[in-house]
Write a structure and sequence with these properties.
The protein is mainly alpha-helical and about 150 residues long. It folds into 2 domains: about 5-90, no CATH class; about 95-140. Helices cover about 60% and strands about 10% of the residues. Strand 2 and strand 3 form a beta hairpin. The chain is rod-shaped. About 15% of the residues are buried. Bound molecules: zinc ion (ZN). The site of zinc ion has 8 residues, from helix 2 and helix 6. Zinc ion (ZN) binds near residues 59, 76, 82 and 85.
């Protein structure tokens, strides 16, 4: 009889090493053997991963038999599709949090604030200048025809 997957003990060692927070590796355990292992994260987001670079259904349907190796799991963890699934799981980051937490965010925030201040100041002066011009133009040209 062919070996049915890997022992549950071995599977747990793999899981502890690669997925200590139990976020993605899932398995079907039969008689203390992990007979099928899949990625619950990729399975959850499969519709949005299809067509993604190097995406394969293997970890959605589950790997079994000779494909059931620690290396296969490690390789999947580093795959572009899996990382995309992780990103989808954490959801879109709100702009505010990107600006606050990323290295580029902080200088960007300062730049945006400075630009805002410059805009307000420039806008203030340009409208002020406009007022001065309109007042001056009335003073120099006098009332227009038709206006007594
Ligand atoms: Zn995955």
């Amino acid at each position: 009889m062919a070996k049915a997957g890997v022992s549950e003990k071995t599977f747990n060692v793999w899981k502890c090493a690669l997925d200590p927070n139990s976020t993605w590796i899932d398995a079907e355990i039969v008689e203390n053997n992990a007979v099928r292992v899949w990625c619950s994260l990729c399975a959850k987001h499969v519709e949005r991963l299809r067509g993604f670079r190097n995406f394969s259904d293997a970890f959605v349907n589950g790997i079994r038999g000779s494909a059931l190796k620690r290396d296969s799991l490690a390789k999947h963890m580093g795959s572009a599709a899996h990382m995309r699934a992780e990103a989808l799981e954490s959801g879109p980051q709100p702009l505010q949090s990107i600006l606050k937490t990323t290295p580029i965010g902080k200088p960007l925030t300062i730049t945006i604030r400075l630009m805002y201040v410059c805009f307000i100041v420039a806008n203030h002066f340009s409208s002020y200048r406009l007022h001065v011009y309109s007042i001056l133009s009335i003073l120099y040209t006098g009332p227009r025809e038709g206006i007594e």
